[in-house]
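Two entries, shown back to back:
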Amino acid sequence: MKLVINGQARKQEYFIDRNTVHIFNLVGDQIGFRFESDELRAVEQQGATDRFCKSPMPGTVTKVYKKVGDIAKKGESIVAMEAMKMELVIKAQFDCKIVKVNVREGDFVEASKPLVELEHV
């Protein structure tokens, strides 16, 4: 991605998760930009009923924070991955119970792979 700030162009690593673009600097710090519109809010509400935490991009699972039966509050870490030498932490988008964990630490996963199955609580 080419990012232009104050007239200076930079090449940045990024990934897109629904309506948020996550941009990473050289040391792996993450900045998220959220785009909002009525259409995007409708898509996000539909996504809030999604039963799976999915991999946002190909990478290696570095940590599984929750196990089957655990409760995760919205915003709590569920799985961490390393992709393009950066750590990505997948967090709960709503209060949920972990129904099934499909990955283990060290697994390589493709983009959009269901990592964990969830149930609303």
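entry 2 starts here
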Amino acid sequence: MKSKTKRPVQFELTENTRDSAANWVVSPEMIGCGEPPRVCVGFGRESLFFHHFHLSHASGHRSTPDAWTGQLNLPKTIALAVFEDGVALQTPISKMPGVQRARGCLSVSAGFEQTRGSHLRTLREEGSYRAIFPRPQHGNLEAVIINTAGGVTGGDQFSTTISANEKARISVTTQAAERIYRAAGSDAGQIKTTLTVATKAQLCWLPQETILFDGCRLERSLAVDVAPRAAFLMLEPLVFGRAASGENLNSCSLQDSVTITCRGQPLYHDRIKMDGDLAERLSRNAVANNARAMASLVMVDVAARERLSACRKLLPQTAGASALSENVIVMRFLAKDSFALRGAILPILKLLTDDAVPKNWRL
């Protein structure tokens, strides 16, 4: 209460906290079960305002949303439920803002100069996506993507664009494993990645594991354009729940696609679409035989086929490698958990990168 005007204090919430506050304020704990309703909320043009007061309950009369929204001069389409003894008497909410979602956009371009070698040419960061660049090793520019949102859930949208210009060499990884959390509704989290590799350039796309949580919904796409005489290495590890924590994916939705082209001609196309009880599907012998982690590795290089024999000697029994053409080899890995998956992947990465694996993969 203001001391001078003797009027209640209005608390103004910024746009960033509007959605969570609107949901919280209508809970019985906030309103006060067993007491007369004493909280009302009004939506201003820019912000959400709290008005704290008691509504009278005259004999044989109950306050209605029209009555108490009128006291605040609020639109009648926006009102909160009135509670008495923990029971909602009115639920006329017809317009509520959606829950705040994370957005992130990252664009990185690598160039090459004879005097400087591979270097960062352009960088653009938006929202929850950031990139840091550790000290280069083996003449490669290294980029580490950071998701400051801490993970991905339903409705989040992230996009990444990486370009390796002529003769540039860049390796891209992530700071940690990306976590795909339970989605509150039907909206899926979206991750879109676009990679471009110019002539005589090299790009290694080596993110750390993507971990799926029960109830998650994910739509992810990776589109790569590789020029002739360019080199490209891709690794996508995927973990179906944390086995050490006893997590099972009983209800999930996953749509994942990878497309690699050269001058518009397809070199590789892969798509995964899984819905429902993923734990049951992964338990089938012909699917994963209870494996909880998998990875796909693709190498595009003029000398790719020559590496095939050496790679096969390093593969465990639950992995395989094939040559799609003279310049494209593909490997698949299955493992009981993410720790075993890393143990199978690292020797292959050391071989294919000439021991230039990003530092984050060595931790």
